[in-house]
Every structure is written in structure tokens, then in C-alpha cells.
Specification:
single chain, 11 helices, Archaeosine Trna-guanine Transglycosylase, Chain: A, domain 4, Rossmann fold, Transcription Regulator spoIIAA, 19 strands, 3 domains
């Protein structure tokens, strides 16, 4: 067991910690001793030596400590990680996992009190991501705990995110345990999907859109549907299930479009009602002469950091204005942003600007954020990234 170091928090900085925010910045710590290793357990106390929280040391700059416990007596050992995994899994078993759904987020980082760790479950397989230097130091214990608690057929690491480099880590895309097939078949709300764990976006599938896909079904009946940024056809399968008379899939990736085709076929829907077009979605929208009853916009994050805020907002406004102009009267637009730096109200405001430029008075039918398996600590607003609005003329 690693030696635990005690750190004192400046009295005027204890508020967020007492409010259960999981990040502690360097300026909040009275004195940080030399020689601390990333991942080293620390206990935080106020200036009167009152215990506040436990976490791991991550860096001498910016986010110094990431919190994973509020119990002074809790030991950071093998049993600690097993407890965290069991607690997280119980929530998913109760509210998500069923005979109809076997793919979901198992560990959602800070929100499951394992900061920097993402674990997604795809049928009998796990995909893990270690985002920070601190959590990366515990990878062996975490992997062993996952193996014991979940008993997966395989564990694959997709720590190939750019944030790894900012943390001073190399990107990893590799098999950790067992074996992983080229494509894993999962079930989601009774539908079947093939997932490319090794090469797909994120960990292979957009698990955070499960509830939005299901909600969209009722708007697809007898509709012509345009699915922009269609990826592997998640929204398209639900559209066909909802009774769409045709679905156009638009994406820049040939592999994603091929897999979308396979997913539609896998669920027994008529491929003659579907088109698969490899083109940039903005270019397609700009030059499209058709009109649709429903359009789906689920783009990648346009705002990767705060420096890209202005440019990203322009991008979101642009594609939404174009899409709004292509929707028939009474039609529906499902539009998303997964940019963490863009809040829900800001997203709504730029949609209002886009609607104004398109001269179309859209109304909000439904609003969604994260799903149950992507649970979030109430004070951890930095972890809120997904916004989805369903609009109608």
C-alpha cells in the first residue's frame, strides 16, 4: 500500500471540497512537498487539522489532487477499488443492464469516485481509459479488480486520447486481458449493434446517446430522416424501427458507413430505404435540395478547449442554420453538442440565433443531458458535456 501524505488546504479554499467537488487546484494547497509521485494517496485537512477528503496526487500544476473518498479511515488498497467498482456496477445493474441492454458506461470517472478512469462494458468485454497520470499509476490494481468483479472475456485499453499527452503520458491502444473479436455485438433497448472496440470513436460506440435514440423513435414514423454525422448508424436503426420511410446516412468515414449498413441489416430493416453518403455533413447540408421531416445533428465536439469557443460556436450555428432550412413544416430537428465548454443555455442561445437566421420559429419539445450510466456529481459541472434538444416547427 502506498504511503499516504497529509496536505493542508487554505481555509478560504475549503468550500468546494466540503461541497464535494472532486478537483483541488494547486493554489488551494498551503504547501506541496517535493517528491510526490503521481497517484500517491493524500489526505486533505483544513488549517485547524479537520479532515476534508482523500484523493490522489496528480500534478504540481493545475489540478493537484483528485478526490476519491470522504472517509478518513478508508484504506487505499485492493479492496478500495473493488468497493468502488461494485458500487458503480450496482447502479448500472439496477437501472440500465437488462436482457434488452448489455452495453453501458460502468465507471464514469470523478462521478463514480474514481477520477480519471472510464470503463465501458460491451456485452462480455470491457474497454478502459486512463485519463490522468495519477489514475494511470493504479492501472494494475484497477484491472485486477475489474477482472475479479466483472469477470469479462476481455479487457481492452483505449487510452488514445489527446489529454494523455498533456498529462505527459503516451497513448495506448492495446489488449490487456483475454481476447477481443474484430466486432463485438451488443444489445441496446432490444436492438443489435456491431461495435469496433479497437478502432471506433471514443470506446467504439456512443453509449451516452442511448436514451436520445429511443426518444427519437416516435418522431420517425412515416418520416424522411437525414442522419448527419451518422457514424455507425445508431440513430438510423432507431429511425427505421420507428417507421421512417427513408433514412440518409451522412459521414466522412467509409468504415463507419459500412458498419452502419451492417447494423441496419443486422436488425432486419430494408436497406433499400437507406442511403449511405460519404461527405462532410456541412457540405451536404449546404448543397442539399431535398427537404426532410426529421434531421439528426450529432457532431463531434467543435470546442476542444476555451480558445476554440468562438470558432466552435460559429460551427454549431452554421450547421444548425443549414439544417433548420431543410426541415418541412411540422418537422423535427434533434441537435446535439458534446463540447464541455459550451453550457446548455449557451447552446440554446446559439440555436435561437441559428433559427433567426433561418427565419424559422422552432420550439423545444424535449431536452436531454447525460444518461443514467453517465451519472454526474451535482457540483461537478466540468463533467457536464452532452446536450441534446429536440426541436419542432
Amino acid at each position: 500500500m502506498e504511503q499516504t501524505i497529509s496536505l493542508t488546504v487554505n481555509q478560504d479554499k475549503i468550500g468546494p471540497i466540503k461541497g464535494f467537488h472532486p478537483w483541488v487546484f494547486s493554489r488551494a494547497i498551503k504547501k506541496i512537498p517535493d517528491g510526490l509521485r503521481p497517484g500517491q494517496p493524500v489526505k486533505l485537512y483544513d488549517e485547524y487539522n479537520t479532515f476534508l477528503a482523500q484523493g490522489y496526487f496528480n500534478s504540481y500544476s493545475q489540478i493537484t489532487v483528485r478526490i476519491w473518498s470522504y472517509d478518513e479511515q478508508e484504506k487505499i488498497d485492493d479492496e478500495f477499488f473493488k468497493r468502488r467498482i461494485k458500487t458503480a456496477y450496482k447502479i448500472r445493474q439496477e437501472y440500465v443492464e437488462s436482457t434488452e441492454t448489455d452495453a453501458f458506461r460502468l465507471i464514469n470517472g470523478e462521478n463514480d469516485l474514481l477520477p480519471g478512469l472510464i470503463v465501458d462494458k460491451y456485452e462480455r468485454y470491457l474497454v478502459v481509459q486512463f485519463h490522468t497520470r495519477g489514475i494511470d499509476a493504479w492501472r494494475d490494481k484497477i484491472t485486477a479488480s475489474l477482472e475479479e468483479i466483472i469477470r469479462p472475456a476481455g479487457i481492452y485499453e483505449r487510452s488514445d486520447m489527446p489529454v494523455r499527452e498533456t498529462e505527459g503520458l503516451i497513448r495506448n491502444n492495446r489488449l490487456i486481458l483475454g481476447d477481443i473479436p474484430d466486432f463485438v455485438e451488443i444489445k441496446e433497448n432490444g436492438f443489435r449493434f456491431l461495435v469496433d472496440i479497437r478502432h471506433g470513436q471514443k470506446t467504439g460506440f456512443f453509449l451516452d446517446q442511448r436514451d436520445k435514440r429511443k426518444a427519437f423513435m416516435k418522431y420517425a414514423k412515416d418520416a424522411s430522416v437525414l442522419n448527419c454525422f451518422s457514424y455507425t448508424g445508431g440513430f438510423s436503426v432507431y429511425s427505421m424501427a420507428g417507421g421512417a420511410n427513408r433514412v440518409i446516412n451522412v459521414d466522412t468515414s467509409v468504415d463507419a458507413l459500412d458498419l452502419a449498413r451492417e447494423n441496419i441489416r443486422l436488425n432486419g430493416f430494408n436497406l433499400d430505404k437507406c442511403k449511405f453518403i460519404r461527405i462532410d455533413a456541412k457540405e451536404y447540408l449546404k448543397n442539399c435540395e431535398e427537404r426532410f421531416e426529421a434531421i439528426i445533428l450529432d457532431p463531434p465536439a467543435f470546442i476542444k478547449d476555451r480558445k476554440k469557443m468562438k470558432e466552435g460556436k460559429v460551427g454549431y450555428k452554421g450547421i444548425n442554420e443549414l439544417a433548420m432550412g431543410l426541415i418541412n413544416e411540422g418537422g423535427v430537428l434533434l441537435t446535439c453538442s458534446c463540447s464541455a465548454h459550451l453550457g446548455l443555455e449557451d447552446f440554446r442561445y446559439l440555436l435561437s440565433e441559428a433559427a433567426g437566421k433561418a427565419h424559422r420559429p422552432f420550439k423545444i419539445l424535449e431536452t436531454y443531458i447525460h444518461g443514467i450510466d453517465h451519472l454526474q456529481l451535482v457540483p461537478f459541472t466540468e463533467g457536464s458535456y452532452l446536450k441534446c434538444l429536440i426541436l419542432s416547427l
